[in-house]
């Protein structure tokens, strides 16, 4: 009886080993199939990433080109504004200031300042009634006209002093 028990035990162990061997073989086949599916999925993913990378590159180049065009246009507009507005205004201002400088320089010459002050004081005297308007005409003559009459020394009115009545 013991031989029968040993034989049954060996057959049972053999059946289990066969079953485990079949399961391992099935598992190996499943792993091989899984490996194939994973490789396919990885291949698809790599292709999609490559396509996306290429698309991003193209879009990046397109964006760079668009930004370059925008910057060129902005630079052109800034230069145009500088030329039309800024530089022209600065040049106009410089020309106007040069013209004002020339006028002021001519006006503020000592002989012109003396004449202007004399005319202003004479006009004040006329308004105050200290002199007659006819005398004002004498003061307002040009320096060349006053130089023609050497017999009449030109009196410069002194501020604060009253003239003859």
Large-scale geometry: rod-shaped
Tally of distinct domains: 2
Average the pLDDT over all residues and give the rounded result.
80
Distance between the termini: 172 Å
Order of helices and strands: HHHH
- Count the helices. How many? 4
Question: Share of helix among residues?
Answer: over 70%
Biggest sheet record: none
pLDDT < 50 runs, ≥5 residues: 148-154, 161-165
Instruction: Determine Rg (CA atoms, Å).
Output: 56 Å
Number of strands: 0
- Derived from helix and strand composition plus strand pairing, the structural class reads mainly alpha
Beta percentage is: under 5%
Tell me what the structure shows.
The protein has about 160 residues and is mainly alpha-helical. The protein folds into two domains: about 1-110; about 110-165, no CATH class. Helices cover about 85% and strands about 0% of the residues. Helix 2 runs antiparallel to helix 3 (about 135-140). Mean pLDDT is about 80; it is low at about 150-155 and about 160-165.
Short description:
By secondary structure, this protein is an all-alpha fold.
List keywords for this structure.
rod-shaped; 0% strand; 4 helices; single chain; 165 residues; 84% helix
């Amino acid at each position: 009886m013991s031989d029968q028990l040993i034989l049954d035990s060996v057959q049972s162990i053999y059946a289990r080993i066969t079953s485990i061997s079949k399961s391992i073989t099935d598992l190996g086949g499943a792993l091989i199939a899984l490996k194939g599916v994973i490789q396919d999925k990885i291949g698809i993913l790599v292709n999609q990433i490559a396509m996306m990378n290429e698309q991003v590159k193209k879009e990046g180049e397109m964006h760079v080109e668009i930004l370059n065009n925008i910057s060129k246009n902005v630079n052109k507009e800034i230069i145009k504004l500088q030329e039309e507005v800024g530089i022209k205004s600065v040049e106009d201002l410089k020309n106007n200031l040069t013209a004002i400088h020339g006028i002021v320089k001519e006006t503020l010459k000592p002989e012109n300042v003396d004449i202007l002050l004399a005319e202003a004081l004479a006009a004040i005297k006329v308004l105050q009634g200290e002199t007659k308007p006819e005398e004002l005409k004498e003061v307002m003559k040009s320096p060349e006209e006053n130089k023609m009459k050497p017999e009449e020394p030109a009196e410069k009115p002194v501020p604060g002093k009253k003239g003859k009545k």
